[in-house]
Amino acid sequence: SMMDADNRFRTLQGKVGRRLHTRGVLTEDVLAAARLRCHEYWSRITPGNVTLIFKSMCERCPTWEAADTKFDWIWKKGDWDLDGRSVKIAGRLLSSEDLEQAERRCREKFGLRPTATLRRSGACAVQQGTPSTVPDRIPETADAP
To answer: For site-directed labelling of 135, which of 13, 37, 117, 122 has its Cα 20 to 30 A away?
Structure first.
């Protein structure tokens, strides 16, 4: 959650100036950029949508394998917007971030690690070939409508 992320950033604030595992140094600029990107990600999540997806999956799927199959179907065959950032299901517009968070919660419920599988929306796979979880890195093409 955003609260967990803020707590983590407060912890990292005390480590500014230290050497990172990647041979770099943690600076204020690096920390500010990471915090901004984290806030942008969490601003696209609607808690009500995450709860709706989570409850729906848990009611209909007795195992993680069944839920995983449903998540696969949504990601591959759902009615995605052209930019691949949101899908329309049962009249609701759900963001890719909503689906990722719901998948994490489902994985936790079924006793798995809460890391979501990197999936591609049907729109991204066809148009861009890039995962929807990294929308700020999708290259713009001149021939796109």
So the answer is: 13
The secondary structure of the chain in percent helix, strand, coil, rounded to multiples of 5, reads 55, 10, 35
* Residue 25 DSSP class: B
Question: Which residues lie closer than 8 Å to 1 by C-beta, 6 or more apart?
Answer: 42
Output the tens digit of pLDDT for each of the chain's 145 residues. Answer: 677 777 888 888 888 888 877 778 888 888 888 888 888 887 888 888 899 999 999 899 999 999 999 988 888 888 888 877 888 887 888 888 899 889 999 999 988 887 766 776 665 543 333 334 433 433 344 444 4
Cβ within 8 Å of residue 85, ≥6 positions away: 44, 95, 96, 121, 132, 135
Question: In one letter, which amino acid is 131?
Answer: P
